[in-house]
Amino acid sequence: MRRSERRRARSSHSAISSSTRVPRGRGFFRGSGRTGSNAVFTVRTPTPYSRIKARYDIPARASRRIAAYESTLDFGGAIAASSRRARPCSHHKPPGPAPLVSIVILTVITVAAGIAVPTVGDKGALPSSLPVPGLPDVPFTLDTLTTIAPYAFAMALVGLMESLMTAKLVDDSTDTHSNKTRESIGQDIANIITGFFGGMGGCAMIGQTMINVKVSGARTRLSTVLAGSFLMVLCIAFGPVVSDIPMAALVAVMSMVSFATFDWHSIAPKTLKRMPAGEIAVMVITVAAVVATHNLAVGVVVGSLTAMVIFAKRVAHLAQVTAVVDPDGSTVVYRVTGELFFASSNDLDGQFDCASDPDKVVIDLFAAHIWDASSVAALDAIETKYEQRGETVEITGLNDPSADLHGKLTGELAGSH
């Protein structure tokens, strides 16, 4: 009996699990075949219940559940077989850049509902015509220069820093390289020309640039020309419409841009644990200076000075001097490695043993670089000490920039001899 049941179950399974070629469905069943809407794949039903029951002793309650499960799979197979074509899910995209769409929608809502909110027009009247060139109506005196010079310097400093940071962000986002020197010169020329048209100085804006690059998908400089042209047309031809834009819409856009632009990974606890203490100090001091003074220029200056001090202190300890005496004891070679500048040259003199060195001393600077006059003065002072003891000093291994600087300044610095 058991052998005959197994034979019937095997034949039944062969009939049920025969391959059925059906159009490729929406992914409920797996299969193989051609890709595309008319692709086919093989649907195989699971092992029938009769075969399972023939091999194992299954309780009645479990038998009913297995039978129901088989019926469900058969129904699913029938649905898959009846499918003619796969219809991919459609992804709805906004009709334009998301910031522009949000501004238009919020403007329409506030105007249609008559909601009283601060608008762009509340900040001042928009221009109705193109500006004409002319000279500023101010007295060209020294008092005027002393009045505007601090503000001009602060604006130039902040504008240059922000433009360079913006260029770096764009380079990273688009995987391109920009000429920072050309960008700076172009910004300076543009701000000078703008003054003759009654405009104010400007620079690259990180927020607007990120909207242009990440949200709108801009990749060339043509996008900046078009943005300026569109802004001019909007202000001159559609001034009344632009005046009705609520400030809340612009604030919302800038808030999202700020959130997306901010490098949250830089302040993560795991990142802060790995960062050097000096880098964290620069970041905290810069933010504290900006918040305390409400002046970005002050924060930039304080942060830059702090970074320079920390960098100088860090690099100063990299300069090392190693002494190697020849086997005959007549010559000692001092190998100097690292960067030689005002911070590292102060300790340079103390690493030479003038009292016990032989008659000939060689200072090898092949692995070093001379950056400023203080390093040249330190080398001159070392030579002077050896010459006073009747010993000969030879400096070798200078690279071309170091040799040029040393040749121009050696023996000419006061107090070196």
Explained architecture:
The protein has 417 residues and is an alpha/beta fold. The protein has helices at 2-16, 49-55, 60-82, 98-113, 142-174, 180-195, 206-215, 222-237, 239-243, 247-261, 269-274, 277-293, 296-316, 373-388, 400-409; strands at residues 21-23, 40-42, 320-325, 331-340, 360-370, 392-396. Residues 12-46 and 67-90 have low confidence and may be disordered. The strands form two sheets. Strands 3-4-5-6 form a four-stranded mixed β-sheet. It has a two-stranded antiparallel sheet with strand order 1-2. Helix 14 links the parallel strand 5 (360-370) and strand 6. It has 15 helices and six strands. Helices cover 54% and strands 9% of the residues. It folds into four domains: 2-82, no CATH class; 98-261, no CATH class; 264-315; 317-409, Transcription Regulator spoIIAA (2-Layer Sandwich).
